[in-house]
Amino acid sequence: MDGSTAVIILTLIVTYLIWFVSLRRSYKGPRVWPLVGSLPALITNAHRMHDFIADNLRMCGGTYQTCIFPIPFLAKKQGHVTVTCDPKNLEHILKTRFDNYPKGPSWQSVFHDLLGDGIFNSDGDTWRFQRKTAALEFTTRTLRQAMARWVDRAIKNRLVPILESAMSRAEPIDLQDVLLRLTFDNICGLTFGKDPRTLSPDFPENGFAVAFDGATEATLQRFIMPEFI
């Protein structure tokens, strides 16, 4: 390697480091490293992703920004990520200026295998049409009454007996698992007309529930990790 080449390489490295330091100052949350961004923290905490994100949100006051692709000209476009749980920000994104925040092709490609072109994975006219259709369904008195009856029965006949049984035996219970089963049974019963009865005293395993959990976990990993991974 001749001297001029070494100087060029050194200049590029120094220029990148100066750019990176100025970029990193605007980020909070997990540490951002040169070239690999916050990927090391994401990979290390992949087994506790929700807790990891919640920890960062608490540390940063409800909103933080990070970068998973700190490369000049690409960082802001493809690697910049904003995470928030602030109610005002959520209202701004989901209600006040909803049209300013389309899901876009990257989001849609990640979720397409699981959600297809449904209301949770569509934009523009397709989303508006599905939203109007869903709104008509969910505002009918018949559906509201059916939902109330179904949920009321599930709570009285399944949830309460399980909690009372655990209390009488002074045994711990996984409340998150119990509430997930309650929600799963209610959604399947109301949507498909089929009650899987996963919320039972013996907590049976349900093939569809297991498959759905696997699909959502795989989708989450697709969303977090860069496409080449």
From TrEMBL:
The chain crosses the membrane at residues 6-23. Keywords: Heme, Iron, Membrane, Metal-binding, Monooxygenase, Oxidoreductase, Transmembrane, Transmembrane helix. Coiled coil: none annotated. The keyword Heme applies. It comes from the Eukaryota. One of its GO terms (molecular function) is oxidoreductase activity, acting on paired donors, with incorporation or reduction of molecular oxygen. It holds the Pfam family p450. Its cofactor is heme. Belongs to the cytochrome P450 family. This is Cytochrome P450. It comes from Arabidopsis thaliana x Arabidopsis arenosa.
